[in-house]
């Protein structure tokens, strides 16, 4: 899948990396990145994800050369809730001191991420974006016999299938769809949940989203989720957990609803059972996406950074 994304557009050089901290593996990856930088001789280096905080910056520091260094966290690792406080403290220290000693500019993908990044050093905001075609008319509303709610994601701890399942059990009169698959599939046991499994392409995913009455994001933490943006671009109202990333996209009561407790969904779903309300919220979300999360404008800002 990754190779298909790069086909004909860029050269992909794969460097194996361990997901967690691993001194031996991390040293090998840093050395390989450094060697590739020496071959490429880049004018600009843009690192992505928290793992790049140390490995990519260290390799870029060793490489030297006349280059500009940027880094986008896509959700800081110290925001995770599936690791100990000791680890989150370590992750935060790594972010802080990598910025202090190895330099570079943090390019935050969302407003709250930007506010955090500013506390570590030089930072700019370039929001995530996607192609929004104003010429495409609003799609017809789905004709579901019951309110249908869905999410697009791998079934992992970060997206909280446990919470998704609890919500489905609380609302047996609503149909729920998990678009995707993953290692925690067994956590989705409610009889009113349908799991699509892995789909073969963006068109199939978009078709599944289009069949939903509303989109729901049950994340425990986020960077700035593209799936929510894609749902908004398809004029779907969004119900999401009130966490960093989600709250940077969804405007409570205007484009959808944010919640911290499952009981808050009683009022949200009651309002969203009205098709006119769903249509109004979905249209407002589409306009917000067009204004703030449009890559035709957002990525121009990124190019200006590279060229400055």
Main β-sheet, in a few words?
6 strands, parallel
Order of helices and strands: HHEHEHEHEEHEEHEHEHEHHH
Overall structural domain count: 2
CATH architecture grouping of the largest domain: 3-Layer(aba) Sandwich
Whole-angstrom Rg: 21 Å
Question: What is the rounded distance between the termini?
Answer: 33 Å
Low-confidence stretches are none
Mean pLDDT: 91
CATH class identity of the largest domain: Alpha Beta
| Helix content estimate | 40-55%
What labels would you give this structure?
single chain; Rossmann fold; alpha/beta; 2 domains; 4-stranded parallel beta sheet; globular; 308 residues
Break the fold down into its secondary structure elements and pairings.
Blueprint (H helix, E strand, L loop, with lengths): L1 H5 L16 H18 L3 E5 L6 H9 L4 E5 L12 H18 L2 E4 L2 H8 L4 E3 L22 E5 L8 H10 L4 E5 L13 E3 L6 H9 L3 E4 L8 H8 L4 E4 L4 H4 L6 E4 L5 H8 L2 H18 L2 H13 L1
Parallel strand pairs: 1-2, 2-3, 3-4, 5-6, 5-8, 6-7, 8-9, 9-10
Textual characterization of the structure:
- The chain is an alpha/beta fold and 308 residues long.
- The chain has two domains: 10-125, 3-Layer(aba) Sandwich (Rossmann fold); 148-292, Rossmann fold, CATH 3.40.50.
- Helices cover 42% and strands 14% of the residues.
- The protein has helices spanning 2-6, 23-40, 55-63, 85-102, 111-118, 161-170, 202-210, 226-233, 246-249, 265-272, 275-292, 295-307, and strands at 44-48, 68-72, 105-108, 123-125, 148-152, 175-179, 193-195, 214-217, 238-241, 256-259.
- Helix 2 (23-40) crosses helix 3.
- The mean pLDDT is 91.
């Amino acid at each position: 899948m990754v190779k298909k994304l790069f086909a004909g557009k860029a050269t992909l050089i794969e460097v194996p990396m361990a997901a967690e901290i691993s001194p031996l593996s991390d040293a090998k990856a840093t050395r390989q990145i450094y060697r590739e930088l020496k071959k490429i001789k880049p004018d600009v280096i843009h690192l992505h994800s928290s793992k790049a905080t140390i490995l990519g910056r260290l390799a870029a520091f060793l490489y030297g050369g006349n280059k500009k260094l940027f880094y986008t966290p896509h959700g800081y690792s110290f925001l995770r809730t599936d690791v100990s406080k000791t680890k989150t403290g370590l992750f935060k220290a790594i972010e802080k001191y990598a910025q202090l000693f190895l330099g570079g500019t943090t390019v935050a993908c969302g407003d709250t991420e930007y506010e955090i990044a500013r506390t570590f050093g030089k930072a700019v905001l370039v929001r995530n974006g996607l192609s929004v075609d104003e010429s495409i008319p609003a799609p017809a509303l789905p004709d579901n016999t019951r309110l249908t709610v869905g999410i697009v994601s791998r079934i992992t701890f970060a997206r909280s299938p446990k919470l998704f399942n609890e919500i489905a059990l609380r609302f047996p009169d609503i149909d729920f769809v998990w678009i995707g698959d993953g290692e925690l599939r067994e956590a989705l046991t409610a009889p009113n949940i349908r799991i699509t499994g892995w789909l073969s392409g963006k068109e199939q995913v978009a078709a599944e989203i289009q069949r939903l009455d509303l989109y729901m994001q049950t994340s425990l933490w986020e960077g700035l989720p593209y799936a929510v943006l894609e749902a908004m671009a398809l004029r779907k109202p969004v119900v999401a957990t009130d966490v960093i990333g989600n709250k940077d996209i969804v405007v409570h009561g205007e484009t959808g609803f944010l919640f911290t407790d499952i009981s808050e969904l009683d009022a949200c779903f009651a309002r969203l059972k009205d098709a006119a309300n769903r249509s109004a919220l979905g249209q407002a979300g589409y306009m917000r996406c067009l204004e703030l999360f449009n890559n035709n404008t957002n990525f121009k800002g990124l190019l200006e950074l590279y060229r400055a």
